[in-house]
Amino acid sequence: MYKYDEYDHSIVAARVEEFRDQVNRRLAGQITEDQFKPLRLMNGLYLQLHAYMLRVAVPYGTLDSRQMHMLAHIARKYDRGYGHFTTRQNIQYNWIKLADAPDILADLATVEMHAIQTSGNCIRNISSDQYAGAAADELTDPRPWAELLRQWSSFHPEFSYLPRKFKIAVIAADEDRAAMRLHDIGLQVVERGGQHGVAVYVGGGMGRTPMVAPLIKDFVPFEDFLSYMEACLRVYNRYGRRDNIYKARIKILVHEIGADKYRDEVEAEFAEVKKLDLDPPRAEFDRIAAYFAPPPYETGLSDAIDRGDPDFAVWLDQNVAAHKAPGYAIVNISLKPVGGIPGDASADQIDVMADLARDYSFDELRVTHAQNIVLPHVRKADLPAIWQKLADAGLAEANLDLISDIIACPGLDYCSLANARSIPVAQKIAQRFSDLGRQRELGELKLKISGCINACGHHHAGHIGILGVDRKGTENYQLLLGGSGAEDVSLGTITGPGFSEDGIVDAVEKATDVYLRERAEGERFLDTYRRVGMAPFKEAIYG
Amino acid sequence: MGDPLRFRADEPHDEPAVTLDAFLGQSNATAVRIESGEDARALLPHLDRIALVEVSFPKFRDGRGYSSARILREAGYAGELRAQGDVLVDQIPLMRRCGFDSFAPEAPVDEAVLAAALARYDHHYQRAADPAVPVWKLRHG
Amino acid sequence: MRILTGNDLVTGDVTWWTGSGWSRHVEDAADVGDQGEAIAQAEEGARRVNAPYVIDAAETADGPRPAHIKDRIRALGPTVRPDLTLKPADPNAGSWVI
């Protein structure tokens, strides 16, 4: 894991004091809410329905146990005993007092954490593959590239007042576990002539105008990486629309002028900025990459696992993924218990996960964009013990990628932008399909729920997506089918008229019935939908 | 509005700034004002005769002027570069890094707050248009 | 009736204008008539409230009830965490919210 040096510490400490000063000026009436709002947002502090909400950055989703324990400490000391893990691999707290926010940031800084740029019209926390460094299928660990971006984007003087927020994801495997092409910039580390560089996709996103990012450059070597990013952002900062907040994301710019024109603009700008010595030397990449060196795996370990306990065997098959080192595995901890709140974890559960990471996973955890937690490097021999401890803490739900592993935004229960509640819909669907055998029969089925058109719950990218809307003051839910945030990326299509809260649960069940009836051997729900099209689903749902 | 806050040793330039169109259309003007949507690169052929560029910030959320400033400095412009309009004290440190050395905020700025803000960060991650040495350069020489 | 709501500047708590001050309880909300905007501006200027706004509400035997679901949820707390609402001990406290 990356460790701060004196410079990183100095910058984060200065940020804590800067924000303390800004909060004090707000409380003393020296700045208005209109002036304070962008300042607090750039530190992840929102005013939500019930209180202030603080979003803490988890850079590229990677944490150690000390950091995870700190998240539990903050939940207990400053909040109401829990936190919510988000689709951008961050954590947010729902009951924060403005006056406490600077102290929270100071506590976070002691474990090399912060809330820098977790909101606002700036470059947000860099997200990545939750299996980075552990996946059997990756070219290399993408996180050194993500850390380079973290540093480059932090307090970037030119790009702190962009037309709109800006999200970047970095992956290094062909299997996309980070919805890479649904980001403002999606990067895939690729190899050419023995060198690693990035393929650059620009202009993806969800929200009210979902778009899949087109490829802008197939290979940018490390030596040009940050200059190229600088050029991509400068073109956006200069030409992105500022007349309409709903058209201000870079996807609209790329769409309106076209990918070719955008590429030409970036190339021209790159030719200018490349003269400026913006790119760090290879030694800086190597310095950062050394922190992400593989942990000291034991060799000669057995791959055998005792499957004696049937509940353990189900969890093993569903939640454990292949690791690149012999004798090791990747454990997914589901934060989606049936009837629970997707992504929420109590302070006690956070502590349990931290201790498991310390004891069994080389002190590492990951947050996933599906709002789960990963222990990336565990010995297969330890799996039964880990499972037992997870089960004791209510964390052994064996539903990874099944219909109850739902992504849901906080919705109208917490969020001031929402039009409808998301969590109760997720709970009702999970309860309807609570039989795990039935869920496993349905197989991989990514269900994603947003409580408004901003699409924080990724409904466009769900095999089944649900969008909550406000219909004359009443919650109403639209159903979408056929989306994917993975390497087979696609945007879902709305089935037709919306439903009540109970009606949407019935409609989901009817869609799964069509799948069970129509599926061919080996097909997932998404595959069947793509083959048979919308018609049979529509007929079953509305017929 | 009082005198601009200046971070330059030379004397203030007292010729009023003309619009970009006026500047390009004629003139021997030596001070020019560019609006946030205007292309700073239009000035590049004329930099040697310009003493003051005033960049307009109609709203503090409109960040186009930060790019305008860097483009001018990157092209070698050494004259006064002034941020004018809805310029907030918390933005001035970022503007300084983009090359602004003069500020004419619509609302008065608390000078003690500004002084503290400008002194706050000892280090910066990225190279910009100011003399600050980026952290990666400090790490590797 | 029209009532005025916002969040406490320091704590972020949901608050309701009572006619003379701010209360956490919507039951205490006063009809502001056409004075809501003026009160909001003065109270925000005095930093006794953040982001105030005027809403429609119904007068009931139990007190004012906001017209829109969003403000009813604000009034009590998240529907999915009754333990975190203003009335955690009362299982029927949310019967009017949804």
UniProtKB/TrEMBL annotation, chain A:
EC number from the UniProt entry: 1.8.7.1
GO molecular function list: sulfite reductase (ferredoxin) activity
The keyword Hydrolase appears for this protein: no
Residue stretches making up the Nitrite/sulphite reductase 4Fe-4S domain: 119-271, 404-541
Oxidoreductase among keywords: yes
Database matches in InterPro entries: NIR_SIR_4Fe-4S, NiRdtase/SiRdtase_haem-b_fer, Nit/Sulf_reduc_fer-like_dom_sf, NO2/SO3_Rdtase_4Fe4S_dom, NO2/SO3_Rdtase_4Fe4S_sf
Enzyme class: oxidoreductase
Domain of life: Bacteria
Protein name in UniProt: Nitrite/sulfite reductase
UniProtKB/TrEMBL annotation, chain B:
InterPro entries per UniProt: UCP030820
A Pfam entry, by short name: DUF934
Organism domain of life: Bacteria
Identification of the protein by name: DUF934 domain-containing protein
UniProtKB/TrEMBL annotation, chain C:
Taxonomy, superkingdom: Bacteria
Record Pfam families: DUF2849
InterPro entries: DUF2849 (IPR021270)
Name of this chain's protein: DUF2849 domain-containing protein
Native organism: Sphingomonas canadensis
Taxonomic lineage: Bacteria, Pseudomonadati, Pseudomonadota, Alphaproteobacteria, Sphingomonadales
